[in-house]
Amino acid sequence: MSTRRKAASLGAVGAATALLVTFNPGQASAHGTMFNPVSRVAVCYGEGPEGPKSQVCKDLVAASGTQPLYDWNEVNIANANGQHQKLIPDGKLCSANREKYKALDWARTDWPTTPVSAGAFNFRYRVTAAHPGTMTVYITKEGYDPTKPLKWSDLETTPVAKANVARTAPSGYYEFTGNLPNRTGRHLLYKVWQRNDSPEAFYSCSDVSFGGAQQAAAKAPTQQQIDAGASKSTVSHHGHGGDVPGERAAANKVAAQDGAVALNAENTAAATGGDSAMPQMLAGTAAVGMTAACFLYFRRRRA
């Protein structure tokens, strides 16, 4: 292949690849939930979406199906921009006012709990896609009634923990320390993770118990469970909340196919001594195919 034709072929493929990289949803990603104390959605996912153990998780699956559990890291509002109380009404805090996760708002006393006590507490947030922002954790006031839907006024205005989180989380966790006040019985810890590189925010409710009667113990999912359920998630663990299932995989498949076309173009040129115009045509087709895939992908995303 002549230098000119090789450059043209590679340039066409490079332009298409650049489009995919530019619009890759993984560049605007953040997902996760609280693992210590364990959030409600993590508790039920840890029990197993297909065979939950506790009655509340069985009822959740009966009412909403298993998908909310396979999508355990997606309780979000894409355009929150710090307007949490404006966007989430009383009684809908745990679900972030999303119908898909409405069972998380159930006011019940049989949610498994994490035993805690007053004083320093080490929070662990399982993050499947990291982004910088602020993690804020609030606790319910003394006298909180777990048989009633959680309201904003049920939460102390001063958070028990507030931490700036980084763009990366090599261990897979954000870990930070807070201070729990004196409480008795069952309470809720409400977490808000507001990204500072996007208006997106994530939310979770964790049931905790301060002394008193023995509660059903909450357990976080293991890494093996997370890996086993990833293929059933409709949320890319490295994409934006609410990804349509299979879209990104389809885009990657198109990219691989078009890359193969470009390689065949170069091989064809080598076989013909560089006299054929076919390599440029094939490379151009690859670029058009890649561009079309990106356009269709993001048009569906916007819809």
Structure description:
- With 303 residues, the protein is of the alpha+beta class.
- The protein has two domains: 3-24 and 245-302, no CATH class; 29-232, Distorted Sandwich (Coagulation Factor XIII, Chain A, domain 1), CATH 2.70.50.50.
- It is built from eight helices and nine strands.
- It has helices spanning 3-23, 40-47, 55-64, 67-70, 84-87, 223-229, 247-272, 278-302, and strands at 31-36, 76-77, 114-116, 119-129, 133-139, 161-165, 173-180, 185-195, 201-210.
- Strands 2, 3, 5, 6, 8 and 9 form a six-stranded mixed sheet that branches.
- Helix 1 runs antiparallel to helix 7 (247-272), helix 1 (3-23) runs parallel beside helix 8 (278-302) and helix 7 packs antiparallel against helix 8.
- The longest helix has 26 residues, at 247-272.
- It is globular and about 40 Å long.
- The protein starts with a helix and ends with a helix.
